[in-house]
Amino acid sequence: MSDPPPEDPSAAPSRPAAPAPGGPELSGDWEFLSEGWYRVVDAELAGGPAPMPTAADALDAYVVPIALQKAEAAGLPVPEWFLANEWFPVNVVVYGVNPFNRSHAVVRTEEQQRVAAKRLTWRCKYTVCCERIAPETTLVEFRAVGGRAESAEFAGWADAVLRVFRLPLAKVRLLRTGDRLELSAIEKLPWKSLSRAERAFAEEFRRSALA
């Protein structure tokens, strides 16, 4: 999937069309209480076929420990992970789990651990999800649009995000250790941030899903 020359994302329509019954909702942000969340909840309450995604689908994808469990159950490679709310060792990627803090930090030193623990747990009030990494592990990201990715390397992952999590739009973060890729997190990919080519792929996907 190749992009056109750089363009101003603000030129994109501010919102996609309302989802047809049972069809994809293309807001790209279905966080709790967001506009996209309300749109899918309204579609679910209207009855008939469920939209893509449902509110539950989005929750499964955006909450990192739930996403890791769901991905592992579907046969996708995931890192070793654990939950904590205060101390955790170094050589981890740490994610906030509460709905008001989805940020993350790569922790490789004791000083980074102290800063991340204080910030992401909100002084030990909330749980964090820690993914163990090797010293050589790097983080890579790609944008999944209608089950496709720009790079062929991530084509299978983009398809899996759509198949397992039912998200038509997502930013996906992976852990790369040597030749191995593991799921780290799935995050929102708002419609207004899409390039012209990505919007075209998204609309093509929406039409094919409704055909």
Fold and architecture overview:
The chain contains 6 helices and 7 strands. By secondary structure, it is an alpha+beta fold. It folds into 2 domains: 12-76 and 136-210, no CATH class; 81-132, no CATH class. The strands form 2 sheets. The protein has a 4-stranded antiparallel β-sheet, with helices on one face. Strands 5-6-7 form a 3-stranded antiparallel β-sheet.
The strands making up the biggest β-sheet line up spatially as: 1-4-2-3
Main sheet attributes: strand count, strand direction, barrel closure:
4 strands, antiparallel
Q: Which range does the strand content fall in?
A: 15-25%
Helix share of residues? Answer: 25-40%
Number of strands: 7
Order of helices and strands: HHHEEEHEEHEEH
Number of helices: 6
Measured between the Cα atoms of the first and last residue, the distance is 22 Å
Gross geometry: globular
pLDDT < 50 stretches:
2-7
Q: What is Rg? A: 18 Å
Q: Based on helices, strands and strand pairing, what is the structural class?
A: alpha+beta
- Overall mean pLDDT stands at 90
Give the domain tally.
2
